[in-house]
Design brief:
GO terms for molecular function: hydrolase activity. This protein is about 45% helix and about 10% strand. It is an alpha+beta fold and about 450 residues long. The chain has two domains: about 250 residues, DD-peptidase/beta-lactamase superfamily (Beta-lactamase, 3-Layer(aba) Sandwich); about 120 residues, Serine Threonine Protein Phosphatase 5, Tetratricopeptide repeat (Alpha Horseshoe).
Length: about 450
């Protein structure tokens, strides 16, 4: 019997040490990232159902005088759209709406186009509505006035995907119409309270206590009040409770959750961002959001009892790199330390250079600053290539993408990018060749399959 107790004690000690080692590695990686100026915010990591890391790393506002604590609330960008999506499904389960109902049923004051858009279209971003006019809209009334003046949709509802916030705006108005409650009160009473999220709220202002303020690298602070309302802000603990409520179907059923992770087409977003159901289990859930200088990411992996929550008030566009490093640490693999972005630091210079000059700059930085920038992964040159392509500098983009394929010849993604650049140039033969190579390396690349089919049609 003593032997059994000793074995149990040793196993428990080994488990605790293993978790501590992971936490130490995560802490080291995050503080290095912070010292490079690449992350400020709050972090939680759950592994095997246990919180193994939870920490604030940064400051509450642009003055950088008061350190963050884990009690601070953050805007989470598009992840806040989960609350209206879950609200819609909650009303559906109560028999108060059907997903095939038209918007006009609940908002009859809208023009005739509302008779063509279903609630399902709103959830899947296939309504055909244009986006909110962010330059002129200063409140919900302004946005509703714009919609009242709208005469035609951008495309026939249900035929294409266009991610924009008017789909979200109308979901919130429908919830208000059916429930008879302002959207913020609906969220507080029907979602936050049942999930045990006692420190979250909707639409904070400058006087809201314990609210992290977002700011850029020049210490310019962003606004807290947004053009349209309905944005839930959360703490680390409440964000964790929200994900547990989704995974354990505390608010809506597995069937409703399945609808919210089923996009219009592969790779597109839906009500919960992205996710995978297996039977009656939400096995994977991933959603990111950006708003002003806030950036957030939640990744849930229920079979592993794993969750990674990142909330930043100083957006650096690298939260996926940070998550990848954390996931590798949790899996016991070598991780890639997040690095600075060459594009971000040298954007103005890059915009004036040819493709070969950009590669010369890349090699110079590789010699002089090898530990600051990301030379060990494909992202560094790929994001430069896309920036060039967006600026219509296609030849320079092709030069950069071509070189990236020599650095990472086993990456389907870099060949996909090169194929896209050649397609934009009008060179269908080279586009086809590179898309085919991409598909060979990544058979799950649905985009490549679709483009190849179109290019091979004579």
């Amino acid at each position: 019997m003593k032997h059994c107790y000793l074995t149990l004690i040793l196993l428990l000690a080994a488990t605790v040490t293993y978790a501590q080692n992971k936490a130490t590695l995560i802490d080291t990686m995050l503080h290095r990232t912070n010292r490079l100026g690449l992350f400020k915010g709050n972090v939680m990591v759950v592994d095997k159902g246990k919180v193994i890391y939870k920490a604030p790393i940064g400051f509450t506002d642009a003055s950088e005088t008061q350190p963050l604590t884990t009690d601070y609330r953050f805007h989470i960008g598009s992840i806040a759209k989960e609350f209206n999506a879950v609200g819609i499904m909650l009303l559906k389960e109560e028999g108060k709406l059907d997903l095939d109902d038209k918007v006009s049923k609940y908002l009859p004051q809208l023009p005739n186009w509302a008779e063509k858009i279903s609630i399902r279209n709103l959830l899947q971003y296939t309504s055909g509505l244009p986006d909110v006019n962010w330059k002129t809209v200063r409140g919900d009334a302004d946005n509703m006035a714009d919609l009242m003046k709208l005469t035609t949709l951008d495309f026939e509802s249900g035929t294409h995907y266009a991610y924009n916030n008017n789909n979200v705006f109308l979901q919130r108005r429908i919830i208000e119409k059916i429930s008879g409650m302002p959207f913020n009160k609906f969220v507080e009473s029907k979602l936050l309270k049942p999930a045990g999220m006692s420190n979250s709220l909707v639409d904070p202002d400058d006087y809201t206590p314990l609210m992290a303020k977002s700011y850029d690298n020049n210490r310019k602070q962003g606004a807290l009040i947004y053009p349209i309302t309905g944005w839930t802000v959360v703490t680390l603990d409440d964000f964790y409770k929200w994900e547990l409520a989704l995974e354990n179907f505390k608010l809506i059923s597995p069937a409703s959750t399945q609808i919210l992770v089923t996009p219009f087409s592969p790779g597109k977003q839906c009500g919960l961002g992205g996710g995978t159901m297996q039977g009656n289990q939400l096995v994977f859930h991933k959603h990111d959001g950006i708003s002003v200088q806030y950036q957030a990411l939640l990744v849930g992996n229920k079979p592993k009892g794993r969750m990674v929550i990142l909330m930043s008030n100083n957006k650096q566009n690298n939260i996926f790199d940070i998550d990848n490093a954390i996931e590798d640490i949790l899996d016991g693999k070598p991780y890639v330390q997040p690095k600075k972005s060459i594009l971000k630091d040298f954007q103005k210079q890059i915009d004036t250079l040819s493709g070969h000059q950009i590669l010369a700059l890349y090699h110079k930085l590789k010699q002089t600053n090898p530990d600051e920038y990301g030379f060990s992964n494909e992202t560094t040159l790929n994001e430069i290539g896309y920036s060039l392509m967006n600026a219509k500098n296609i030849d320079a983009a092709i030069t950069v993408f071509e070189y990236n394929t020599t650095l990472f010849p086993q990456s389907g993604n870099v060949f996909d990018s090169l194929g896209e650049a050649y397609l934009n140039k009008g060179d269908k033969a080279k586009a086809l060749a590179n898309y085919k190579r991409s598909l060979q390396l990544d058979p799950n690349n649905s985009t490549a399959k679709s483009v190849i089919e179109k290019l091979e049609v004579k």
